[in-house]
Amino acid sequence: MPLSHPIRFGANYVPPAGWFYSWLDPSPDATRRDFEDLAGIGLDHVRVFPIWPWIQPNRTLIRQRGIDDLLELIDIAAEFDLSVAVDLLQGHLSSFDFLPSWVLTWHERSLFTDPAVRDGIAVYADRLTRAVAERDNVFAVTLGNEVNNLYPANPTTPEASARWAAELIDVVRAAAPGLLALHSLYDATWYDPAHPFHPADNVDLGDLTTVHSWVFNGVSAIDGPLGPATVTHADYLVELAAATSLDPARPVWLQEVGAPRPDISAADAPEFVRGLLDTVTTNPALWGVTWWCSHDLDRALADFPDREYDLGLFTVDHRAKPAAEELAAVIKERRRPVVNRPALVCDVDLRSEPERRAEVAPGSAFHTEWVRLRRSGPLAIVTAGRAADTGHLTARGITTVLTTQA
Fold first, then answer.
1. What is the rounded end-to-end Cα distance, in angstroms, of the chain?
2. Which of 48, 55, 337, 362 has its CA 20 to 30 A from that of 29?
3. Rounded to an integer, what is the distance from CA 75 to the centroid of its chain?
């Protein structure tokens, strides 16, 4: 799955039968049924989440059975022409953290700073990456799902966070040179001035940038479920990423996006999906869209935040929801219009001024102005330091530069 022109569409795979606990007792037939759902609406890939402590329960023990279960799932995906991205460290999933006991209880060691833990993770990353790289339909390995969610329980610093991720990216690349090696962070890295994972890490480390767009971060409170700030938030994150990267051609993967309740009601979900995708798919930096998530969560399972139960494209009994039907319609259109667009100058350089991240957060003056101007059509973001760089502007399809005073 090269970094090519057509937009990729996929889903983050959440098994409807048993959620991620199903890794303890996997059912190939259940997986086939799930993947048949996803292939049936035109998706071309899935992102999957083997549970780290169940494969590496001890720092020096990696269970081959756990790896074999993952390989079987990848082979089933191939039966439906689905490519697979594998996340390594789970890590954080749907409000639960899954960490091995050898970093908890009496051990109390930070994933990001303890040398022995880092060595153990490196061995795990090497072993799992080499195994999945043997499958032709695997295209990417991500270090973990929103690993910055594991802070502050695992204390770190910006320098340690960047070093940790850079070292693991090198492990993945050495183990599988033909796969994309990726670093995944949720949006505190873009918006929280004190967060110890910085925007530069997201755009410098790995082979492309990943962003996760969730409107329950405060965006939906600005103008409601179908307002311009809400519908354009994914495009805004893609633009922040493109503006922060030193490489004007670096692709951005919208690796997670969904329609969470109550921010987006069931009645509003199809229109939200259409508006979001009509907006973000015009962005020339966009590599692909991976919906969170494939299937709803069974309400027989306890203690999840309420919104987690209804995020699926399909119900637990495999019925396609209206959001899935709207996504399928967009996929059939397979369009990416050629866009030459203006850019709004951002005085904050997130690469060199992470302490100013609040100035671009949802509801900030800059975000408000970008949303206002975005209503007239596609709108890029460019830092003040690159606003006169004609090579950079041309590479990103930017024709006009606007200021917030314009």
1. 41
2. 55
3. 23
- Residue 369's nearest CA partner among 229, 224, 257, 181 is 229
Residue 402 Cα distances to 130, 340, 350, 380, 385, angstroms: 47, 14, 19, 10, 14
pLDDT tens track for 25-58:
999 999 999 999 999 999 999 999 999 999 999 9
Please give the structure tokens belonging to residue 323: 């959001």
Cβ-contact 305, 7 below 8 angstroms: no
- Structure tokens, 287: 């590599």
Q: Measuring CA to CA, which residue among 14, 17, 13 is closest to residue 27?
A: 17
Edge-to-edge order in the sheet of strand 380-383: 380-383, 341-346, 398-402
Q: Residue 253: how many CA atoms within 13 Å on its side-chain side?
A: 31
Q: Which two tokens stand for residue 22?
A: 């199903």
The CB-side HSE value for 76 (13 A sphere, CA atoms) comes to 22
Inter-CA distances, 214 with 82, 152, 181, 226, 358, Å: 25, 21, 23, 14, 17
Neighbours of 390 (CB within 10 A): 9
pTM: 0.96
What rounded mean pLDDT belongs to the chain? 95
- For the four alpha carbons of 265, 270, 281 and 77, in that order, the dihedral sign comes to positive
Which pLDDT score is estimated for 2? Answer: 45
> Does residue 3 belong to any structural domain of this protein?
no
- Residue 397 amino acid letter: G
How many angstroms separate the CA atoms of 260 and 311, rounded? 6
Whether residue 234 sits in one domain with residue 199: yes
Distances (CA, A) of 369 to 229, 248, 250, 342, 361: 10, 23, 25, 13, 12
Rounded Cα gap, residues 379 and 372, in angstroms: 10
Indicate whether 244 and 110 sit together in one domain. yes
- CB atoms inside a 10 Å sphere around CB 361: 18
User: Domain residues for 372?
Assistant: 341-402
- Domain check: are 375 and 295 in the same one? no
Using alpha carbons only, what angle is made at residue 257 by residues 246 and 67, rounded to the nearest 5 degrees?
90
**One domain for residues 121 and 187:** yes
Cα 70 from Cα 26, distance rounded (Å): 9
Residue found by looking up tokens 């396609």 in the block? 320
Q: 395 lies in a domain?
A: yes
Whether 253 and 274 share a structural domain: yes
